[in-house]
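Notebook, student rotation project (T.W.).
Task set for the rotation: take a protein with a known small-molecule partner, predict the structure of the complex, and write up what can be learned from the model alone. Partner molecule chosen: NAP. Sequence and SMILES entered below by T.W., checked by me.
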Amino acid sequence: MPKREQVILERRCEGRPSADDFRYETAPMPSAGDGQVLIEVLYLSLDPYLRGKISGRHMSGGVAPGSVMAGETVGRVLESRSPDFAVDDLVHSFSGWCSHAAVAAAEVRRVRSYDLPVSLALGALGMPGLTAYAGIERLADVRENNTFLVSAASGPVGSVAAQLARLKGARTVGIVGSRQKADWITGPARFDAAINYREEDLQEGIKRTCPEGVDIYFDAVGGEVLDLACEQLALDARVVLYGVLAQYNAESRLPGPPPGLIIRARAHMHGLVVYDHEDLRPEMEERCSAWIKSGAIAYNEDVTEGLQHAGAAFARLMAGENFGKTLVRIA
Ligand SMILES: NC(=O)c1ccc[n+]([C@@H]2O[C@H](COP(=O)([O-])OP(=O)(O)OC[C@H]3O[C@@H](n4cnc5c(N)ncnc54)[C@H](OP(=O)(O)O)[C@@H]3O)[C@@H](O)[C@H]2O)c1
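Predicted structure of the complex:
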């Protein structure tokens, strides 16, 4: 009898997650009930927000210890008991960390491949890509020759956001934590400059690369990084807050930048939540897939083979050791 593979959240970890916060096991194979589809999962997406779900603090809800770990996947329909899907359709779902899942058709979205790797539906053409696109199109107000600074710059949100800003005429600068990431953003992803905070003082790096000030800061981290970027804001700057990476593994809230820095720059701060921008998805997919095909947007993926290694891959992501969109290939 074929079995389904799944990964259970063992405990609400404190601090950085480790591989043994998760348990890999097999279980009976599910089948599609009325109105459901049975999905064979091809790729599991590992995203920083899952850390918030483990703590029970994320706005989309928590995941309870003892349950299958939550997560987004792309997969192939093996069996359909819904008129909306056929066998072999490629679909996105919130099936969690498993190899097969029976999911209500209403919670499944068909995925177009655009003749590109289907894994992109979880990265540059998926939720992270939509976050970047919405931030650039709706909040950042990118103008010709603006200096655009972004943290977590080699990740799927940061790298796409900066490349979209470059396509609008901005000069782009990325904050990263390794030489490999710095080489990638200034190489294939064509940023104008990189600051590697493990090799250079961050404050000096921001001044060196943004001497005329930062017109747009796209922040994934919060805390000290946000504070230092705000020190260098140009007049009329826009700050788009899209993540709190420095807080995910911490117990307490991070201090923010002093209000005086925002007042001095007459800056605008925007909180970005991807769920508010679902209407942009078709436009984002059409435009970004064309840019990826033409080479105008580069992407990178950090792919782990096999669901049994998902916990270790997630621990690497939350330690900042991933390089690119973090995925687990299952089928
Ligand atoms: N607002 C929204 O709707 C929305 C939607 C999607 C994603 N997000 C957020 O966007 C941010 C980036 O997500 P992503 O999917 O593009 O992933 P990602 O960039 O691959 O995220 C991991 C990277 O973050 C960096 N990082 C910086 N400080 C860190 C810290 N204290 N601990 C761990 N990593 C740290 C590391 O890169 P370096 O070594 O280069 O620092 C690490 O490789 C996350 O905060 C995520 O939650 C928000």
